[in-house]
Amino acid sequence: SRICKPLPAMGPGALSRPHVSAPRSSQTDFLRIAVFVALAGLGWFAVDHWNLAAYARPSLLHARVDELGAWAIVLYLGIWVVLNGLGGQTMLPAISGGVMFGWLYGGILTVVGVALASTFQFLLVRFVLRGPAESLLLHRFPTLGDRIADRGLGLLVLLRFVWFPTWVVNIACALSPMRARTFVLGFPAMLPEALLVCLISDSVFTWGWWDIPVQRWVGIAALAAGGVATYLIALRRFPTLRNWRGEGVSTPPESE
Q1: What is the pTM of this model?
Q2: Backbone phi, then psi, for 209, in 5-degree steps?
Q3: Burial class (CB in 10 A: 0-12, 13-18, 19+), 151
Protein backbone atom coordinates (compact mmCIF):
# COMPACT_ATOMS: atom_id res chain seq x y z
CA SER A 1 0.00 0.00 0.00
CA ARG A 2 1.12 3.53 -0.77
CA ILE A 3 2.13 5.52 2.29
CA CYS A 4 1.15 9.17 2.19
CA LYS A 5 3.51 11.45 4.04
CA PRO A 6 2.06 14.58 5.58
CA LEU A 7 2.79 17.83 3.84
CA PRO A 8 5.08 20.27 5.62
CA ALA A 9 3.35 23.01 7.48
CA MET A 10 2.86 26.21 5.53
CA GLY A 11 2.04 29.59 6.91
CA PRO A 12 -1.04 31.52 5.91
CA GLY A 13 -0.80 33.12 2.53
CA ALA A 14 2.00 30.81 1.34
CA LEU A 15 -0.04 29.59 -1.61
CA SER A 16 -1.08 33.07 -2.67
CA ARG A 17 2.38 34.60 -2.44
CA PRO A 18 3.33 35.99 -5.84
CA HIS A 19 6.42 34.75 -7.56
CA VAL A 20 9.16 37.33 -7.50
CA SER A 21 11.76 36.95 -10.18
CA ALA A 22 15.38 37.43 -9.27
CA PRO A 23 16.89 40.73 -10.31
CA ARG A 24 18.65 40.65 -13.64
CA SER A 25 22.39 40.31 -13.36
CA SER A 26 24.47 43.24 -14.48
CA GLN A 27 26.75 40.90 -16.41
CA THR A 28 24.57 41.25 -19.51
CA ASP A 29 24.74 45.04 -19.45
CA PHE A 30 28.48 44.93 -18.81
CA LEU A 31 28.94 42.56 -21.76
CA ARG A 32 27.00 44.86 -24.07
CA ILE A 33 29.07 47.86 -23.01
CA ALA A 34 32.31 45.89 -23.46
CA VAL A 35 31.32 44.78 -26.96
CA PHE A 36 30.38 48.33 -27.93
CA VAL A 37 33.66 49.75 -26.61
CA ALA A 38 35.63 47.01 -28.39
CA LEU A 39 33.91 47.67 -31.72
CA ALA A 40 34.30 51.43 -31.34
CA GLY A 41 37.99 51.03 -30.54
CA LEU A 42 38.49 48.71 -33.48
CA GLY A 43 36.83 51.20 -35.81
CA TRP A 44 38.91 54.04 -34.42
CA PHE A 45 42.23 52.29 -34.99
CA ALA A 46 41.18 50.80 -38.33
CA VAL A 47 40.29 54.18 -39.86
CA ASP A 48 42.73 57.05 -40.26
CA HIS A 49 40.54 59.76 -38.71
CA TRP A 50 43.27 62.35 -39.03
CA ASN A 51 43.38 62.11 -42.82
CA LEU A 52 39.93 61.04 -43.96
CA ALA A 53 40.18 63.05 -47.18
CA ALA A 54 43.02 60.79 -48.38
CA TYR A 55 40.72 57.84 -49.04
CA ALA A 56 37.20 59.28 -48.73
CA ARG A 57 37.83 61.48 -51.80
CA PRO A 58 34.97 63.96 -51.19
CA SER A 59 35.52 65.58 -54.60
CA LEU A 60 34.39 62.39 -56.36
CA LEU A 61 31.41 62.15 -54.03
CA HIS A 62 30.39 65.72 -54.80
CA ALA A 63 30.71 65.05 -58.51
CA ARG A 64 28.46 62.03 -58.17
CA VAL A 65 25.88 64.07 -56.25
CA ASP A 66 25.95 66.71 -59.01
CA GLU A 67 25.32 64.01 -61.62
CA LEU A 68 22.29 62.68 -59.77
CA GLY A 69 20.86 66.16 -59.25
CA ALA A 70 17.49 66.13 -57.49
CA TRP A 71 17.58 62.33 -57.27
CA ALA A 72 20.46 62.62 -54.79
CA ILE A 73 18.17 64.54 -52.43
CA VAL A 74 15.36 62.01 -52.90
CA LEU A 75 17.70 59.11 -52.18
CA TYR A 76 19.16 60.87 -49.17
CA LEU A 77 15.74 61.57 -47.66
CA GLY A 78 14.76 57.96 -48.35
CA ILE A 79 17.83 56.80 -46.46
CA TRP A 80 16.76 59.03 -43.59
CA VAL A 81 13.34 57.36 -43.42
CA VAL A 82 14.91 53.90 -43.40
CA LEU A 83 17.77 54.53 -40.95
CA ASN A 84 15.91 56.85 -38.59
CA GLY A 85 12.28 55.86 -38.98
CA LEU A 86 12.93 52.11 -38.78
CA GLY A 87 16.31 51.93 -37.04
CA GLY A 88 16.49 55.04 -34.87
CA GLN A 89 19.84 56.10 -36.39
CA THR A 90 20.41 59.86 -36.40
CA MET A 91 24.09 60.77 -36.37
CA LEU A 92 25.19 58.63 -39.33
CA PRO A 93 22.79 60.14 -41.91
CA ALA A 94 23.49 63.62 -40.52
CA ILE A 95 27.23 63.15 -41.06
CA SER A 96 26.53 61.82 -44.54
CA GLY A 97 24.47 64.91 -45.34
CA GLY A 98 27.34 67.20 -44.39
CA VAL A 99 29.78 65.27 -46.57
CA MET A 100 27.43 65.00 -49.57
CA PHE A 101 25.76 68.42 -49.65
CA GLY A 102 27.98 70.69 -47.56
CA TRP A 103 27.26 72.04 -44.11
CA LEU A 104 24.43 74.42 -45.01
CA TYR A 105 22.32 72.32 -47.37
CA GLY A 106 23.30 69.18 -45.47
CA GLY A 107 22.02 70.65 -42.20
CA ILE A 108 18.73 71.74 -43.75
CA LEU A 109 18.21 68.37 -45.44
CA THR A 110 19.06 66.65 -42.16
CA VAL A 111 16.18 68.41 -40.41
CA VAL A 112 13.86 67.64 -43.32
CA GLY A 113 14.92 63.99 -43.24
CA VAL A 114 14.47 63.57 -39.52
CA ALA A 115 11.08 65.32 -39.76
CA LEU A 116 9.88 62.91 -42.44
CA ALA A 117 11.21 59.85 -40.61
CA SER A 118 9.87 60.94 -37.22
CA THR A 119 6.44 61.82 -38.62
CA PHE A 120 6.28 58.39 -40.25
CA GLN A 121 7.17 56.78 -36.93
CA PHE A 122 4.70 59.01 -35.05
CA LEU A 123 1.78 58.01 -37.29
CA LEU A 124 2.81 54.35 -37.31
CA VAL A 125 2.85 54.17 -33.53
CA ARG A 126 -0.34 56.15 -33.00
CA PHE A 127 -2.51 54.23 -35.45
CA VAL A 128 -0.88 50.80 -35.90
CA LEU A 129 1.66 49.81 -33.23
CA ARG A 130 0.30 51.54 -30.16
CA GLY A 131 0.27 48.45 -27.92
CA PRO A 132 3.84 47.22 -28.52
CA ALA A 133 5.19 50.77 -28.48
CA GLU A 134 3.53 51.49 -25.14
CA SER A 135 5.04 48.35 -23.61
CA LEU A 136 8.48 49.32 -24.91
CA LEU A 137 8.25 52.88 -23.62
CA LEU A 138 7.02 51.83 -20.17
CA HIS A 139 9.89 49.37 -19.91
CA ARG A 140 12.67 51.75 -20.94
CA PHE A 141 11.33 55.23 -20.05
CA PRO A 142 8.31 54.74 -17.75
CA THR A 143 7.70 58.45 -16.96
CA LEU A 144 8.53 60.14 -20.26
CA GLY A 145 5.06 59.74 -21.75
CA ASP A 146 3.41 61.45 -18.77
CA ARG A 147 5.98 64.25 -18.85
CA ILE A 148 5.42 64.85 -22.56
CA ALA A 149 1.66 64.96 -22.01
CA ASP A 150 2.04 67.38 -19.08
CA ARG A 151 4.76 69.69 -20.38
CA GLY A 152 3.92 69.62 -24.09
CA LEU A 153 5.79 71.75 -26.59
CA GLY A 154 8.28 73.12 -24.06
CA LEU A 155 9.76 69.71 -23.24
CA LEU A 156 9.52 68.57 -26.88
CA VAL A 157 11.55 71.54 -28.12
CA LEU A 158 14.19 70.95 -25.44
CA LEU A 159 14.51 67.27 -26.33
CA ARG A 160 14.79 68.12 -30.02
CA PHE A 161 17.37 70.81 -29.34
CA VAL A 162 19.69 68.44 -27.45
CA TRP A 163 19.03 65.64 -29.95
CA PHE A 164 17.56 63.24 -27.42
CA PRO A 165 17.05 59.86 -29.17
CA THR A 166 14.37 60.61 -31.74
CA TRP A 167 12.63 57.24 -31.60
CA VAL A 168 12.01 57.66 -27.87
CA VAL A 169 10.56 61.15 -28.30
CA ASN A 170 8.45 60.04 -31.27
CA ILE A 171 6.92 57.13 -29.37
CA ALA A 172 6.23 59.25 -26.28
CA CYS A 173 4.53 61.94 -28.36
CA ALA A 174 2.50 59.39 -30.32
CA LEU A 175 1.19 57.81 -27.12
CA SER A 176 0.33 61.19 -25.59
CA PRO A 177 -2.65 63.39 -26.52
CA MET A 178 -0.28 65.71 -28.41
CA ARG A 179 -1.58 66.90 -31.79
CA ALA A 180 0.38 66.18 -34.93
CA ARG A 181 0.71 69.92 -35.57
CA THR A 182 2.41 70.44 -32.22
CA PHE A 183 4.64 67.45 -32.89
CA VAL A 184 5.89 69.01 -36.15
CA LEU A 185 6.65 72.35 -34.45
CA GLY A 186 9.55 70.80 -32.55
CA PHE A 187 11.73 70.01 -35.56
CA PRO A 188 13.20 73.51 -36.18
CA ALA A 189 14.89 73.19 -32.77
CA MET A 190 17.14 70.50 -34.30
CA LEU A 191 18.59 72.84 -36.92
CA PRO A 192 21.46 74.35 -34.84
CA GLU A 193 22.99 70.99 -33.97
CA ALA A 194 22.30 69.64 -37.46
CA LEU A 195 24.28 72.52 -38.96
CA LEU A 196 27.04 71.99 -36.41
CA VAL A 197 27.34 68.26 -37.12
CA CYS A 198 27.37 68.87 -40.88
CA LEU A 199 29.93 71.66 -40.56
CA ILE A 200 32.29 69.46 -38.54
CA SER A 201 31.77 66.51 -40.89
CA ASP A 202 32.41 68.60 -43.99
CA SER A 203 35.55 70.08 -42.41
CA VAL A 204 36.99 66.72 -41.37
CA PHE A 205 36.36 65.07 -44.73
CA THR A 206 37.73 68.06 -46.62
CA TRP A 207 40.93 68.84 -44.69
CA GLY A 208 41.34 66.14 -42.03
CA TRP A 209 41.49 66.91 -38.31
CA TRP A 210 44.98 68.41 -38.28
CA ASP A 211 44.57 70.67 -41.32
CA ILE A 212 41.23 72.34 -40.59
CA PRO A 213 41.81 76.11 -41.00
CA VAL A 214 41.56 78.35 -37.97
CA GLN A 215 38.75 80.28 -39.65
CA ARG A 216 36.69 77.10 -39.86
CA TRP A 217 37.27 76.36 -36.15
CA VAL A 218 36.11 79.89 -35.36
CA GLY A 219 33.02 79.27 -37.49
CA ILE A 220 32.31 76.02 -35.63
CA ALA A 221 32.59 77.77 -32.26
CA ALA A 222 30.41 80.67 -33.43
CA LEU A 223 27.76 78.30 -34.76
CA ALA A 224 27.64 76.39 -31.47
CA ALA A 225 27.34 79.61 -29.46
CA GLY A 226 24.72 80.94 -31.85
CA GLY A 227 22.62 77.81 -31.47
CA VAL A 228 22.58 78.10 -27.68
CA ALA A 229 21.83 81.82 -27.89
CA THR A 230 18.96 81.17 -30.30
CA TYR A 231 17.39 78.68 -27.90
CA LEU A 232 17.70 81.09 -24.96
CA ILE A 233 16.13 83.88 -27.02
CA ALA A 234 13.28 81.55 -27.98
CA LEU A 235 12.70 80.78 -24.30
CA ARG A 236 12.45 84.48 -23.57
CA ARG A 237 10.28 85.23 -26.60
CA PHE A 238 7.83 82.31 -26.27
CA PRO A 239 6.70 81.66 -22.67
CA THR A 240 5.19 78.29 -23.65
CA LEU A 241 8.68 76.87 -24.14
CA ARG A 242 9.57 77.54 -20.49
CA ASN A 243 7.23 74.82 -19.29
CA TRP A 244 9.78 72.04 -19.89
CA ARG A 245 10.18 71.59 -16.12
CA GLY A 246 6.44 71.19 -15.61
CA GLU A 247 6.26 74.12 -13.23
CA GLY A 248 4.05 76.24 -15.43
CA VAL A 249 4.81 79.70 -16.75
CA SER A 250 5.09 82.26 -14.04
CA THR A 251 3.92 85.78 -14.70
CA PRO A 252 5.41 88.81 -12.95
CA PRO A 253 3.25 90.37 -10.26
CA GLU A 254 1.33 93.49 -11.15
CA SER A 255 2.71 96.72 -9.76
CA GLU A 256 0.45 98.50 -7.38
Answers
A1: 0.72
A2: -60, -45
A3: middle
